[in-house]
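Much of the work behind modern protein science is quiet bookkeeping, done one molecule at a time. The protein below has been through that process, and both of its lines are reproduced in full.
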Amino acid sequence: MVETEGALMGQHSVCITVETEGSMTGQNSRCVTVETEESMTGENSLCVTVETEASMTGENSLCVTVETEASMEWLGRQLAQSTGTGGLTVALQGTLGAGKTTFTRGFLRQCGHLGTVKSPTFTLVEPYDLAEGSVYHFDLYRLLDPTELEWLGVRDYFSPNTRCLVEWPERGVGVLPIFDLQVTIHYTDTGRLVELYASSARGHTVLEALRVLSRNNAS
């Protein structure tokens, strides 16, 4: 068990535990549990448990259980950190209130954005020109027809060096490109279950970097 001050979320302290079940199959799939640790320093503390997960059998998958809003933002930060300097396209799927915008806020915070983050429900896209490059946050909830994206010039946003996070991507099917990562957020009795699936070589690289980051944080 390791505690680090300010390593992941500024002043927040983080506790990370790594467990391996010998009876589970393979080390390619991992389940990460993020929750508030009451016995530490209150709401500014996070507890992360990383363990192999038998039900996630492919190396292109990562399963994450998130207990709090702060933990969802932390996960977004971790993904941004794992992205490196290249571009990335992320499909964010989940029902209303699942935490898609919270996840995006964490991603943007890690990229250097300090202002507020609101879902661009009416404008469809919110651009962020940051020191690490351009990030585009899409919300297609109110999109009536995928062809509206053509009028928006959506293809110009998806260049090799930009990072695009798209909420409600299913509403842009046929116009949007293939995503590097698909992030699906499910409700659970205790919080959220986040499934990350790599659907491209770039996505696989980022997912592997996220696994390495988890192991390094625990060492």
